[in-house]
Amino acid sequence: MSHWYVEETSEWTLDYPPLFAWFQRLLAYPAALLDPATLYISKLPYKSPECVLFQRLSVVFTDAVLLSGLWLATRRRCGSQKKVTRYMVAANAGLLIVDHIHFQYNGLLLGILLWSIALIQEGRDVAAAFLFALLLNMKHLFAALAPLYSVYLLRHYCRGPGALYKFATVGSIVAAVFALSFGPFALMGQMPQLLQRLFPFHRGLLHAYWAPNLWALYAFMDKIMSTMVQYLGIPFRSSPASMTGGLVQVSHFSVLPDIGAGAAAAAVLASMIPLLVSVWRRPDPACFACCAALAGLNSFMLGYHVHEKAILMSIVPLALEAAGSLRCARIFQRLSTIGHYSLLPLIYTQDECILKMLMVLAYSVATCILLEQACTEGILEGQEKNVFDLCCGVSLGVGRALDPDIVLLTYLLCEKAQ
Amino acid sequence: MARTSVLRFLRAGTESPTTWLAILIGFLFRAAICLHPYSGAGKPPMYGDYEAQRHWMEITTNLPVSEWYAETKQNNLSYWGLDYPPLSAYQSWLYGKVIERLDPDAMALGESHGYESADSKRYMRQSVMISDLIVLVPALLACRRVFCRGSAEKGDLMLLGSLMQPALLLIDHGHFQYNSISLGLAAGAAAAVASGKDVLGSILFCLAMNHKQMAMFYAPAFFAHLLGRCLQKPSLSSKMAAIARLGLAVTATFVVVWAPFLANPSDALHVLHRIMPLKRGLYEDYVANFWCTTSMLVKWRSIFSQQALVWLCMGSTLLAAMPVLVQEVRRPTARGLLVCMASSAFAFYLFSYQVHEKSILLPLMPVMLLGPDQPIMTRWLPPVACFSMYPLLKKDGLTLAYIALMLLWGAMTWPAVGEERKERQTEASRDHVEAQVSERWRSLLLMGLYVSVGLAVGIHAAPLIWKAPKQYPYIFDALFTSFSFLHILGLAVYLQYQGLANKQLKGD
């Protein structure tokens, strides 16, 4: 265990928090039975039919977490809304692409998030906090939701008589989870090493494939300006930036100032202020899923070294509420279509080309049809309730104007780089 | 708003957005199956059906028409010689020309035997999907308009069922064949005939037969239906004229398709010789038909000569299809045509000479066109058909795809059982006695379904648990065929009964 975060034989070092490492340790037991060679540490990637099948099946089985969370989150909904919501999450094209073609365990992680959201909607805040702490220790990307969770818990749970006691309870539970997860490594004195693995700031502002966020626009501006500068023959700091090279690498902007991790984090926090203020004023469990989606979207738009896959953190919670109101449905439709479209470059092999496009297309058409059916009913029953739709709307309003172009540009740039 | 404009575009025709969604889903799963292995992948020296199709492309693109079906220096007929009618050969030529442009090595004469590359596999796979798109989908849309006129929802379900039935998916996109072309042409023919366009229907059907001779399974149905329609004409002269018109259409189509071979009689004879498989045995491998299943008890081939067997097959086939055929001649209807097509294909599958396990696709197509009106047939036959082909699919390495598609089909059709019961219960308040009887039937049927699914799972599990005893090495294959044979026979009888009973009801 002391080698988990030090080992670097292979290019793919462990960069998830400790609880996820434990999860992988559990998976190693059946894997050892099936094909022991899977577990040898080597520099080159290992691949055998049994190993691939096992890994794929493990994703399929951990999807049970997602489905059970979905069941819990939707069991109180009315008939058609329940059906539509369940379909939209369970058959989510983005999740299918990222988990089952590209290979990740987002079903498991988002499943835990759904469990947590469902518990909040049912008013069981402590359990929700516990699960969220667990989630944070499995993938730290979800730290984007931490401000939202803390404000919500502070205002919704820690109030009334015994507020201080309640605060202590939640605090100690969360602290215990963290202690359990990071404690052993702290005792071994590996915290700096671990944190360096978890937060690889040296990797740069943008991921190898640019995620379609504001920084992509920024980088694109930089490209244009550097070309112009060169064209005009103005002597300038010359570092031909190559940010789409495919492999993770450090990069600098040539004309515009570099954005550090701190600045990006500050931008994310600043963008969340309106959301946090409104949650502070009115912590409503019914709106929590939308808030989570919005917080996820904010961090996606402004975060440091964001992966394109992170958009799922926003799409999946929003899917819970999409069938609830027309406005939400429209935002979801827009977000999921564009978001899934931006995932397409992730699968670059020719064989799956038609498959991935059909997946995104079929999913978008299906949500279109289903949401239209669900919303007529929703409006008739007077379920227009989400104050935060407006909030989402404003945030997306900016994105709406920009996003398609960014995605297109990203796509073109990626193609060129290949 | 983008989403409304998208929906408006999709609504432009009489089809609803749901129709397009059904098609999208159908193609989504085609694209997924494409990633699985094909028949004979990496298995020299003969490979499999994929190599056969590729070899035909190689032959047709490189040799003159007169040598396509003939044994020549360049064309060794014992290595996957062309044994489908000319339209198949033209299709091979067309796709071959395109693939030759993209990957010349895949079509090199003589040197490309067993050529397998990721690129050529993708091109071949995509050619099957394109065939689906330009032949099968338009035909199914036409069928949706003609046969499901009453309800758009039923039509969409029919479409989804026809596109998603696992048997066709696995054979065309997994195993690798172009069945969807001839099946699509036949479906188009059925739609044309049923909507009164007899000449167009006849032409389409002749094309279907000229793509794969197996479409002949439907010939008695079309003959009976069209004859019945002609006989409905008022006077003798108009009857004769109608028949003559159709005869002319059929002859003209055949002449056009066979034109390149008619210049030289020996060429035409070569083709005929290749596509008539009378020299082969009574059945191939393990097929769930009458002859193969009963051969375990009765050694047909030692009792009768080959000639006698051919006659015996022909007689029993016609006899098995006769009741609905007679019915159709006397009173031709649109849905009657479908029942007739299915019944006659069932009869051919069960009793005719030299049947492949893949021929189960032929009765399956018209059954799926019957749509939600025949819930038992449309739900039960596709998995049974798949099950009967399992030994073949397993050989192709398609077990994983088979399991996934069977589970998917189960998930697609299972919940609807509950919905139907609710409908029945509301009906029950109206018509008490009749509903009770049908309720009893239903529970019996459900029971049968559970038993049969249980048995099927058991038969799959058996070879994993036990080893076949030495004196009966093929016992498990025999189990597969017997189980499927009983089901297919039962479903065929049930369909005939439905066809006859429903029409009597209408007649009264």
For the CA atoms, what is the radius of gyration of chain B? 23 Å
Tell me about the biggest sheet of chain A?
none
What structural class do you assign from the helix and strand content of chain B?
A: mainly alpha
What ranges of chain A have pLDDT less than 50 throughout 5 or more consecutive residues? 238-250, 377-418
| SSE-based structural type of chain A | mainly alpha
The total count of strands of chain A amounts to 0
What shape does the CA trace of chain A take? Answer: globular
The count of β-strands of chain B is: 0
Number of domain units of chain B: 1
Uncertain spans of chain B: 1-6, 504-508
How many domain units of chain A? 1
Subcellular location (chain A): Endoplasmic reticulum membrane
EC number (chain A): 2.4.1.-
Pfam family, one (chain A): Alg6_Alg8
Family (chain A): Belongs to the ALG6/ALG8 glucosyltransferase family.
Q: Can you characterise this structure?
A:
The complex is a heterodimer of chains A (418) and B (508). Chain A has one domain. The two termini of chain A are 38 Å apart. Chain A has 418 residues and is mainly alpha-helical. In chain A, 67% of the residues lie in helices and 0% in strands. Chain A has 16 helices and no strands. Chain A is globular and about 60 Å long. Chain B has 508 residues and is an all-alpha fold. Chain B has one domain (13-41, 116-507). Chain B is 73% helix and 0% strand. Chain B contains 22 helices and no strands. Chain B has helices at 2-10, 17-33, 49-62, 86-102, 118-147, 152-164, 166-176, 179-194, 198-211, 219-231, 236-262, 265-275, 290-294, 300-303, 306-330, 334-351, 361-370, 375-388, 390-395, 399-430, 432-465, 475-507. In chain B, α2 packs parallel to α6 (152-164), α10 (219-231) runs antiparallel to α16 and α20 (399-430) runs antiparallel to α21 (432-465). The radius of gyration of chain B is 23 Å and the shape is globular. The N and C termini of chain B lie far apart (54 Å). Chains A and B meet through α14 and α15 of A and α1, α2 and α5 of B. Chain B: It is found in: Endoplasmic reticulum membrane. Chain B: The chain crosses the membrane at residues 20-38, 183-208, 242-263, 308-326, 338-356, 399-417, 444-466, 472-495.
